[in-house]
Amino acid sequence: MKDTNANHGGRTGADGAERLAVLGGTPANPRPRPALQRWGEAERTQLDAMVAQPSLFYWRGPQTALLVERFRQAYPFQHVMPCSSGTAAIHIALLAADLGPGDEVITAPITDMGTAIGILYQQAVPVFADLEADRYTLDVADVRAKITPRTKAIVAVHLCGNPCRLAELRELADRHSLVLVEDCAQAWGALYRGRPVGTLGHVGCYSLNDFKHIACGDGGLVGSNDERIGPRLQRCGDKAYDRVAGTRAPEFLAPNYRISEPQSAVAAAQMLRMESITSRRAELGLRLSAALADVPGVRPHASDPADRCTFWFYFLRLNLAELTCDRQAFVAALAGEGVPASAGYIPGPVYAWPVFQNHSFFGGRWPLREAGLTDMDYRRVRCPEAEAILETGVRIEINQAMDNDYIAVGDGRARHYARR
Ligand SMILES: *Cc1c(COP(=O)(O)O)cnc(C)c1O
User: Fold this and answer.
1) Beta carbons of 207 and 220 less than 8 angstroms apart
2) From the CB of residue 195, how many other CB atoms can be counted at a distance below 10 Å?
3) pLDDT at 86
4) How far apart are CA 1 and CA 398, in angstroms?
5) What CATH number has the domain bearing residue 73?
6) Residue 126 is part of which domain span?
7) Given ligand 1 and candidates 92, 113, 115, which is best to mutate, with the most ligand atoms within 8 Å of its CB?
8) Confidence class of residue 3 from pLDDT cuts 50, 70 and 90?
9) How confident is the model at residue 407 (pLDDT cuts 50, 70, 90)?
10) Domain assignment of residue 256, yes or no
11) Does residue 218 lie within any of the structural domains?
């Protein structure tokens, strides 16, 4: 994006405007994308300590204890269960909330499959609400419209690290006695009105998979300050065995979603890096939004100035009516300039994926529907704004090793495809 035309001897067009690299100009950003060194001494120190331990089991494991301690410094939860993935964290949260057959859970149509897996395994029904056009988080009015007597929970996804409207969602949840689960998998370091996301609903879920900002290969955490939910989290991720009481007499069905000491060792070290990684990304994203504010045909990734969006990636939208090119050509032009960009995100909204379209959740079947416990038909679900977001979105990678100069917009080039 950086306009370094003059410094790098790029050619200009007949009208003096900078020429796009795809049309023979010099790339605006000739620098390679800065590489990230994600692991170092902090991780090595924990792994060395771990190797000296007699056991790698999570319960009373020193690495897991350290992970939980550092996690709670950033996220003040009374109850925390470290687990094997973000998917596991969400499933544990829903199990702890006593979600059961036929219950409805309102959630977002642009997300990872991991958001829906726990809902479906509890024999509950994901109900998709539409998103806001420029923030890509749940549209509160549509969530409200989708509440029925069967609704039991809302899973709010802080997509790209952009906090949902949590005050409104919490108010709605409390008024209808729903459990508000926050899916913070993409939102390490994100703040809602200064408070860490995950702590405003009833239960917060986090992913430590390799693609997230804070990672240990695979892992997750779930935390709660709700006394109905929090004390159940450990059992819900550990076969319903009660490690606190030291008893093994399951009272309900729960999977084994335990973390282990090697994962915890790396994750505990990663916690030390969270603030620097995510505050840097927040700043880079805001800089990009400011730089794009006046570019015709481009709708910047919106975030609330009172919050902190940590931009897991930056997702702008094209207003194609204002442009003379299509999205593919726009992305090709960006790539030509040295901008790490790609078209879209997931191939379609979650409800459009084959497993939903075919209702093929369990051995090709959906027992819940066959038993008449739901009449949900995902072939008829539509979230028009979410579909439009995916059709017009352009994903731009932000990375914390980029310096401020990396974010700039060459005016002449940015206007090349503008109609006016
Ligand atoms: C990554 C992700 C998950 C699932 O996390 P895993 O650790 O991969 O299971 C859930 N929700 C969202 C929004 C995610 O991005």
Assistant:
1) yes
2) 14
3) 98
4) 12
5) 3.40.640.10
6) 41-273
7) 115
8) very low
9) confident
10) yes
11) yes
Residue with tokens 């989290």: 233
Sign of the four-CA dihedral 121, 354, 220, 142: negative
For residue 102, report the distance from its CA to the centre of ligand 1, in Å.
24
Domain count, the chain: 1
Q: Which helix (H) or strand (E) holds 207?
A: strand 203-207
In a domain, 269, yes or no: yes
C-alpha 213 to ligand 1 mean position (Å): 12
Higher pLDDT, 19 or 108: 108
Q: How many CB atoms lie within 10 A of CB 326?
A: 13
Q: Is the pLDDT of residue 15 over 90?
A: no
The arithmetic mean of pLDDT across residues 360-377, rounded, is 97
Is 355 in a helix, a strand, or coil? helix
pLDDT in tens, 333-368: 999 999 989 999 999 999 999 999 999 999 999 999
Residues 6+ apart with CB under 8 A from 114: 85, 86, 87, 90, 185, 207
For a substitution probing ligand 1, which of 111, 112, 137 has the most ligand atoms within 8 Å of its CB?
Answer: 112
Q: Residues with Cβ within 6 A of ligand 1?
A: 85-87, 111-112, 114-115, 157, 183, 185-186, 207, 209, 220
Tokens for 76, please give them.
Answer: 């003040």
d(CA 381, CA 371): 21
Best residue among 105, 162, 183, 346 to mutate for probing ligand 1, ranked by most atoms within 8 Å of CB: 183
358 falls within a domain: no
**What's the pLDDT band for 5 if we cut at 50, 70, 90?**
very low
Q: Which of 351, 346, 84, 66 lies closest to 220, judged by CA?
A: 84
Alpha carbon nearest to ligand 1 atom 10, residue:
114
Rounded percentage of the chain residues whose pLDDT exceeds 90: 89
Residue 4 — pLDDT band, cuts 50, 70, 90? Answer: very low
Which neighbouring-strand residues pair with 256?
238
Q: Which of 281, 292, 347 is nearest to 316 (CA)?
A: 292
Confidence grade of residue 31 (pLDDT, cut at 50, 70, 90): confident
* Rounded (5°) CA angle 402-162-319: 80
